[in-house]
């Protein structure tokens, strides 16, 4: 877990203490290196390094390839130790503990149950194991004086053919921890339309959907997420900036025109689940540059899109939500009001009932007022 102290330049405010909302956080991308080593030993699995620092470095090196396909290969190791009830429960519990320690008061953990069945678990047993760990982590946080609420986002792998089965799984557990549905995996070549049947079913069941789109593929993927997937949020969505045209700039202003797709996303306040460090690692922003200051995040924010800040995979990116906020603040000169806006955006987009979202927004406002 990232324990570095980050302070907002000028104000001196310690960012970890601020209340936060995390919408895009992969369970199999948030393991503690030491826990991974111990879990691997239990199942006689070889790991690239047997010390915590060495394994963390291996993940960092593997994840900085500039390719989503290469980045995703690191998950072969993390999912390998998450094939038993004990492994899933431990990882979920520690993930919640780490989020709470980072100031997160509401989070959604996404993961693909179909990838965790090699040691005999059923889909339902896998979801139950994760929920058990989540509840343990919430209890742990409460005993430490931290309040946190966590929901599961059940994910189907977009290259596989189990979309409807996983959608039905999500609905079965909607009153036992599951708050929504997602598809993930290699994006290019696997449009959300492949899972139209699953999305039709979910729409009929009124279960909210977020879709990975606009990370490793462009506008067609985003369009399919919205039209075929009825997505209420876009996982990453940064390549929506391809539908923006900078008409001209002067010393004070940038004049931008929006294509129909971008206009739709902005006007309907469809949240973008951006993950700055991950977007650099996977090459999602390669069209604009290879440094954080090149990220279209700020342009989207200034244009009024509902941008949110997320970690994606805390292990692979060696990051935390606090660190992501600090990086953005350094890159774009954001102040406390900006950071609060990002959290309120996330609260408004959370897969929670309206009353709960309003309560969450109040907690954020109170926490930032006290900062």
TrEMBL record:
Keyword Metal-binding: yes
Cellular component, GO annotation: cytosol
Gene of this entry: add1
Membrane-crossing residue ranges in chain numbering: none
SUPFAM superfamilies: Metallo-dependent hydrolases
Descriptive protein name: adenosine deaminase
Required co-factors: Zn(2+)
GO biological process, alphabetically ordered: adenosine catabolic process; hypoxanthine salvage; inosine biosynthetic process; nucleotide metabolic process
Family: Belongs to the metallo-dependent hydrolases superfamily. Adenosine and AMP deaminases family.
Organism: Agromyces mediolanus (Corynebacterium mediolanum)
């Amino acid at each position: 877990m990232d324990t570095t102290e980050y302070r907002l330049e000028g104000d001196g405010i310690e960012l970890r203490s601020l209340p936060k909302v995390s919408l895009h956080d992969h369970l199999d991308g948030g393991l503690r290196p030491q826990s991974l080593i111990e879990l691997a030993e239990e199942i006689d699995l070889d790991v690239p390094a047997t010390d915590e620092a060495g394994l963390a470095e291996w993940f960092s090196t593997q994840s900085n390839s500039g390719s989503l396909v290469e980045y995703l290969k690191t998950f072969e190791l993390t999912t390998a130790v998450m094939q038993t009830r004990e492994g899933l429960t431990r990882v979920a519990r520690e993930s919640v503990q780490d989020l709470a320690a980072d100031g997160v008061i509401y989070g959604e953990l996404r993961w693909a149950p179909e990838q965790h069945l090699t040691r005999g678990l059923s889909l339902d047993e896998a979801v139950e194991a994760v929920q058990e760990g989540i509840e343990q982590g919430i209890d742990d946080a409460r005993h430490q004086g931290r309040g946190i609420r966590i929901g599961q986002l059940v994910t189907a792998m977009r290259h596989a053919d189990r979309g409807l089965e996983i959608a039905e799984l999500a609905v079965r557990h909607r009153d036992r921890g599951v708050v929504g549905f997602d598809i993930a995996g290699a994006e290019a070549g696997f449009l959300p339309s492949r899972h139209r049947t699953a999305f039709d079913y979910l729409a009929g069941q009124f279960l909210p959907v977020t879709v990975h789109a606009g990370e490793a593929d462009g506008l067609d993927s985003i369009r399919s997420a919205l039209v075929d997937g009825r997505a209420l949020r876009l996982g990453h969505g940064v390549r929506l900036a391809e539908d923006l045209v900078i008409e001209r700039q002067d010393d004070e202003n940038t004049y931008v025109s929006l294509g129909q797709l971008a206009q739709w996303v902005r006007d309907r306040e469809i949240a973008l689940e951006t993950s700055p460090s991950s977007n650099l690692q996977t090459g999602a922003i390669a069209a604009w540059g290879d440094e954080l200051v090149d990220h279209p995040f700020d342009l989207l924010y200034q244009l009024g899109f509902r941008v949110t800040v997320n970690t994606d995979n805390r292990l692979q990116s060696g990051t935390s939500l606090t660190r992501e906020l600090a990086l953005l603040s350094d890159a774009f000169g954001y102040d406390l009001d900006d950071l609060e806006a990002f959290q309120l955006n996330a609260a408004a987009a959370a897969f929670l009932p309206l009353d709960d979202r309003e309560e969450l927004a109040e907690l954020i406002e109170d926490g930032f007022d006290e900062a």
